Known about the structure:
Layout: E1 4-8, H1 12-24, E2 28-32, H2 38-44, E3 49-53, H3 61-69, E4 76-80, H4 86-90, E5 98-101, H5 106-121, E6 131-134, E7 139-142, E8 145-146, H6 151-162, E9 168-169, H7 170-177, H8 186-203, E10 210-213, E11 217-220
Parallel strand pairs: 1-2, 1-3, 3-4, 4-5
Antiparallel strand pairs: 6-7, 7-8, 9-11, 10-11
Bound molecules: calcium ion.
Amino acid sequence: MTGKILIVEDEPKLAALLADYLQDSAFVTFTLAEGTVVVPWIREHPVDLVLLDIMLPGRDGLEICREIRTFSQVPIIMITARVEEIDRILGLELGADDYICKPFSPREVVARVKAVLRRTRGEQAGPAPDLVLDESRYQARLRGQDLELTAVEFKLLKLLVEAPGRIYGREQIMARIYSDDRFVNDRTVDSHIKKLRKKFQAVEPGADPIHSVYGVGYKFEGLAGNP
Length: 227
Ligand code: CA
C-alpha cells in the first residue's frame, strides 16, 4: 500500500520517528509543525491521509480538523494525549476517521494508517455482501432472510455498515438516528445494539458483526466468511 501522508506534529523527534516508519512502509511523507499553516497547505497539496496532533502551536488540531472537513473528506487520524477528547474527536462536529493516544508505538500508527486507508479507499462491495439493506422499506436481509428490524434499529445498522471499522460514540449514534428531540440516553443506544445483535443471531447463530469498543462506542466488522 502506498500514499502521501501529511504528519502534523510539533515535536520534531516524534515527527521524524513517524516519518521514518511510514517511509519504511513505502509511504511518502510531509511534515508540518505549526497549526496555522495546515489548512492552506492541504488546499494546495492533496494527500491521502493526515495524521493530526491536537496540541499544536498557532492553532488547535480540533479546529484544524473541523475546517478541513468543510472542504475535504481526506482521512484524518487525530493524535491526542487526552483520553477525554476522544468523544469529540470521533463526534459529528469534527468527523475524524480515527484517533491514536499518546504515547503510541510507531508500528501501531503505521497499522492504523493502513487500516484507515483500506477502509476509506472502500472495498466497493462493502464489508458484508450477504447483508442487503433496503432503505425504502427499512428492511435488512442477511443471506436472504429478513432481520425484522424496527426503523430505529435499521437506521443504526445502516450507520454502522456504511463505515465498516469506524467507531461511533454513543452521542454520535444518537444524533444520527433520532431526528426528533425525544429523550434518549446512552443506555437507549446500548439496548438497541443488544436487540440488533440478537436479531443477527436469530437468523444466523454466531453472526456478531457489531462490536463494542470499551469506553468509546460501537463499530461494524464484516460477517464471518466475508473478510
Ligand atoms: Ca503537540
